[in-house]
Amino acid sequence: MEATTTSAEPAPPPQAASAAVVSAVFGSGDLLREILLRLDIPTHLVRAAAVSKRWLRHASDPAFQRRFRARHPPRLLGFYVSTSTYPRVRFLTVPHEFFIKPIRKGYF
Q: In sequence order, what DSSP letters do the residues of 21-46 get, joined into one string?
């Protein structure tokens, strides 16, 4: 006796329909700009802009850059330190999480 199993999972869409949906989503310039706008660190925006010429064009658009700067004001990335035990000047980066916790809790 063979046991038959029925699955409640829907069948996957045909490859052509799936490709059409993906191209419709990634082909939308408005959607791409919104995704880029929600990147929280400017270095992530630079990395995203390196993906393709189209992404670079959207990320380097002056209107987009104004919106990005309004949403993400400049922050301290690090500072230079020189101590008596280590006389060379070196740059220490500040972790992103260092600022997020106090700002969200209102300790500023």
A: HHHHHHT-HHHHHHHHHT--SHHHHH
Tens-digit pLDDT profile for residues 19-70? 777 777 667 788 888 989 998 878 888 888 888 898 899 989 999 999 998 8
Q: How far is CA 51 from CA 36, 54, 56, 68, 101, in A?
A: 12, 8, 7, 18, 31
Residue in 69, 81, 71, 78 with CA at minimum distance from that of residue 98 = 78
The domain spans of the chain are: 18-74, 76-108
For residue 42, what are the CA distances in angstroms to 4, 14, 68, 73, 96?
A: 55, 38, 9, 10, 11
**Tokens matching residue 7:** 């699955």
